[in-house]
Design goal:
The complex is a heterodimer of chains A (about 110) and B (about 120).
Chain A: E1 4-7, E2 10-13, E3 19-29, E4 34-39, E5 46-50, E6 54-55, E7 63-76, E8 86-92, E9 98-100, E10 104-108
Chain B: E1 3-7, E2 11-12, E3 18-25, E4 34-41, E5 48-53, E6 59-61, E7 69-70, E8 73-74, E9 79-84, E10 93-101, E11 109-110, E12 114-118
Parallel strand pairs in B: 2-12
Antiparallel strand pairs in B: 1-3, 3-9, 4-5, 4-10, 5-6, 7-9, 8-9, 10-11, 10-12
The chains are: A mainly beta (about 110), B mainly beta (about 120).
Chain lengths: ~110, ~120
């Protein structure tokens, strides 16, 4: 069973700063099968990144994803006020076929 | 644009069965283009994948819930459902239905979510 571990649990930054969020897999996974989501309070999650690095439709280019095998990163180059939310990584195609990390809360410092 | 809407009771008693329905619009449940899924978000915790059903009617469930879960499909109503048996307070969560494109594994479309509380 593949387990995704996200770090840090909480990240406190100011608007305009750069955010780097980590997702580590317990086993090597195909980077095609790693995604990132953003969830704001009271809302459903929104797909940001698929295939580890491809932005979903309408996602600003300040969001970028990278990584391979067991280590993946979501970077927000310059934080906007609307970016403060919880971020989840997700893997698919392994065992179990779908799973999420526990999330990183990005909060305003 | 595919849209999803959950419906069902917001309160279920312990040991009873939780039943939710997801109605799709802007796309067909019977289409080979999509897969359909349920995901939940317990209060104060992270997202938990519950199960997925494909066009072929193949289903996959979270191992931790597999013995209690089924995901039936009703193509005549363009709906799919979630049945979770023998619920406990630990099953209290916001339940989302979601969908993605066949051949891929991302959840591109989400319902707004429905809060289900398990309490006597």
């Amino acid at each position: 069973e593949i387990v995704l571990t996200q770090s840090p649990g909480t990240l406190s930054l100011s608007p305009g700063e750069r955010a780097t969020l980590s997702c580590r897999a317990s086993q090597s996974i195909n980077s095609r099968y790693l995604a990132w989501y953003q969830q704001k309070p009271g809302q459903a999650p929104r797909l940001l990144i698929s295939g580890a690095s491809s932005r979903a439709t309408g996602i600003p280019d300040r969001f970028s994803g990278s990584g391979s095998r067991t280590d993946f990163t979501l970077t927000i180059s310059r934080l906007e006020p609307e970016d403060f939310a919880v971020y989840y990584c997700q893997q698919y195609g392994n065992s179990p076929p779908f799973s999420f990390g526990q999330g990183t809360k990005l909060e305003i410092k | 644009q595919l849209q999803l809407q959950e419906s069902g009771p917001g309160l279920v008693k312990p040991s009873e069965t939780l039943s939710l329905t997801c109605t799709a619009s802007g796309g067909s449940i019977g289409s080979s283009n999509y897969f359909w899924a349920w995901i939940r978000h317990p209060p104060g915790e992270g997202l938990e994948w519950i199960g997925t059903i494909y066009y072929s009617r193949s289903t996959y469930y979270n191992p931790s819930l597999k013995s209690r879960v089924t995901i039936p499909v009703d193509t005549s109503k363009n709906q799919f459902s979630l049945t979770l048996n023998s619920v406990t307070v630990a099953d209290t969560a916001v339940y989302y239905c979601a969908s993605g494109y066949s051949g891929f594994g991302t959840f591109d479309y989400w319902g707004q979510g429905i809060l289900v509380t398990v309490s006597s």
